[in-house]
């Protein structure tokens, strides 16, 4: 895959008009977009369908988790939308239900391991007995066993996760920040080049692009850094 295939631009903006403006600005420079809760609740599902019809790839970041039947029925309808990737929390029963619901489709299911906004204290406060690294690896193994298409984790864990999931599963990493950029609310971050070298297959970049004074220049700079890492 080229850098353009691996860069997922996070449309973390409040309105469809702003999302459309980002997409127009980036033009052919960006192929892949992430749509999450903020945009979904502003009409983003129809916008996601429009992007797919226009030939863009769409990563629908819904982080599903519910009883098996509810997850399966939701996933069945998402398959019909033409999405490329979908997230759900990496709980074994939910993953198994989702995998069964996508049989015969091209939808890549991603198990969310531990959010990149969480550190060790946050994980303990949430009631888990594992530190973030251990929990990520446990959930990555469960995702592999369930037959998922990939996982979402911090680039800090990508190298260890790659050893568990093998060469074929996707490792999608948010919390990507170019050198010198503010981490914001992310606690486990890495530069684009270092993330690729660590084993990430896809990088989710939102604020460093969509909030930049010149989003097109920002996206091109990140792609150039990724190209350099891939060629090394």
Can you walk me through this structure?
There is one protein chain. This protein has 232 residues and is α/β, with parallel strands linked by helices. It contains eleven helices and eight strands. It has helices spanning 3-6, 16-26, 37-53, 68-80, 92-101, 120-125, 132-146, 158-165, 192-198, 207-210, 215-231, and strands at residues 7-10, 32-35, 57-64, 85-89, 108-112, 150-152, 170-173, 202-205. It has an eight-stranded parallel barrel with strand order 1-2-3-4-5-6-7-8, surrounded by five helices. β7, α9 (192-198) and β8 form a beta-alpha-beta unit. α7 (132-146) runs parallel beside α8 (158-165) and α9 (192-198) runs parallel beside α11. The longest helix is centred in the first third of the chain and has 17 residues, at 37-53. It is globular. The two termini are 15 Å apart. 43% of the residues are buried.
């Amino acid at each position: 895959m080229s850098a353009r295939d691996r860069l997922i631009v996070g449309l973390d903006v409040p309105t469809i008009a702003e999302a459309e403006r980002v997409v127009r600005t980036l033009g052919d420079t960006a192929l892949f977009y992430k749509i999450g809760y903020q945009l979904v609740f502003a009409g983003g599902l129809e916008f996601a369908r429009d992007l797919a019809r226009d030939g863009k790839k769409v990563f629908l970041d819904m982080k599903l988790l519910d009883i098996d039947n509810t997850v399966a029925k939701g996933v069945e309808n998402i398959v019909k939308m033409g999405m490329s990737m979908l997230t759900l929390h990496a709980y074994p029963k939910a993953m198994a239900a989702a995998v069964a619901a996508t049989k015969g489709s091209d939808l890549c299911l991603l198990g969310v391991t531990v959010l990149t906004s969480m550190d060790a204290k946050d994980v303990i406060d949430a009631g888990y007995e594992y530190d973030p690294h251990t929990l990520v690896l446990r959930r990555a193994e469960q995702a592999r066993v369930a037959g998922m298409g990939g996982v979402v984790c911090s680039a800090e864990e990508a190298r260890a996760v790659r050893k568990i999931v093998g060469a074929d599963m996707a490792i999608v990493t948010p919390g990507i920040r170019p050198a010198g950029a503010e981490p914001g609310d992310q606690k486990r971050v890495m530069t684009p080049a270092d993330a690729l070298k660590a084993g990430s297959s896809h990088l989710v970049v939102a604020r460093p692009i969509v909030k930049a004074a010149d989003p097109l220049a920002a996206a091109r700079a990140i792609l150039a850094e990724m190209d350099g890492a891939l060629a090394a």
